[in-house]
Amino acid sequence: MQTRDSERLAVAILLFDDVEVLDFAGPFEVFSVTAELNGYKHLHVFTLAEEQRTIITRNGLSVIPTHTLVDAPKPDIIVIPGGIGSKVAMMRPAVIEWLQAHAPNAEVVMSVCTGARILAKAGLLDGLTATTHHEAFADMRELAPNTTWVEGDWQDTRFVENGRIITAGGISAGIDTALHVVAKLLGRDKARATAEYMEYETTLL
Q1: Is residue 181 packed enough to be buried (19+ CB in 10 Å), middle (13-18) or exposed (0-12)?
Q2: Which of 11, 13, 111, 128 has CB atoms 3.0–4.6 Å from 116's, for a disulfide?
Q3: Of 135, 122, 10, whose CA–CA distance to 111 is shortest?
Q4: Which CATH number covers residue 100?
Q5: DSSP characters over 13-53
Q6: How far apart are CA 183 and CA 190, in angstroms?
Q7: How do beta strands 129-130 and 62-63 pair?
Q8: How far apart are CA 187 and CA 133, in angstroms?
Q9: What CA–CA distances, in Å, run from 82 to 36, 87, 164, 165, 197?
Q10: Does the predicted TM-score (pTM) go above 0.85?
Q11: For residue 15, how far is the Cα from the chain centroid?
């Protein structure tokens, strides 16, 4: 466990059209609550997208990103959500180039659900073990044949960790994964306090 008491980490959460809402909103809540409970000393949480415009998420929620890929702060934690829109986002050169440029220097790069598509397209899952939404494994095996996909019971396999690269299962698993990242970088006490504030039950802490 690496505890940080003075360094403020930048948490970048990618947005794109047809992104699954809880994929990004779950981790956003976890990291934001952790920041708030600790006087905003440890984390700076923001969203970013390829363009500065309203993003229309899956099922029609409108969200305005804080930054673009060009003007966003250098990220220490990268969150790549999924959803049907990940099929388009992974084909956007600017998205892949941004991820490839910043992933090597990030403390953690995490995908949620089919956000693993974008990590795979960027070449970040080659030779690693990963997971994703339980309905997407066939697609993932074709996209990333050099990745070992963990297809166990989604209730048991909430995420798979490969050092800095962490892939979460479907949708709500992003909350568990974000809490794990908080514990990993800031300590279990802060992660537990965040879960308690959120009234979120987890056996992973």
Answers
A1: buried
A2: 111
A3: 122
A4: 3.40.50.880
A5: EE--TT--HHHHHHHHHHHHHHHHHTTTSSEEEEEEESSSS
A6: 7
A7: unpaired
A8: 28
A9: 26, 9, 19, 16, 26
A10: yes
A11: 11
Classify residue 148 by burial, with Cβ atoms within 10 Å: 0-12, 13-18, 19+: middle
In this prediction, residue 6 carries a pLDDT of 53
Taking CB atoms within 8 Å and a gap of at least 24, the contacts of 99-104 are 99/124, 100/124, 102/12, 102/74, 102/75, 102/78, 103/78
Would you state the structure tokens that stand for residue 108, as one six-digit string?
Answer: 């953690």
Supply φ then ψ for residue 81, to 5 degrees: -80, 175
- For residue 203, is it within any domain? no
* 203 class by beta-carbon count within 10 Å (0-12 exposed, 13-18 middle, 19+ buried): exposed
Distance CA 194, CA 50 (A): 30
Q: pLDDT tens for residues 100-122?
A: 999 999 999 999 999 999 999 99
Q: Which residues of the chain have a pLDDT value below 50?
A: 1-5
**φ and ψ at residue 113, rounded to 5 degrees:** 60, -135
Q: Which amino acid is at 117?
A: R
Which helix (H) or strand (E) element contains residue 77? Answer: strand 77-80
On whether residue 4 sits in a domain, the answer given is no
Q: What one-character DSSP code corresponds to residue 76?
A: S
Joined together, the tokens standing for residue 177 give: 């994964």
Structural domain harbouring 58:
9-196
* 47 falls within a domain: yes
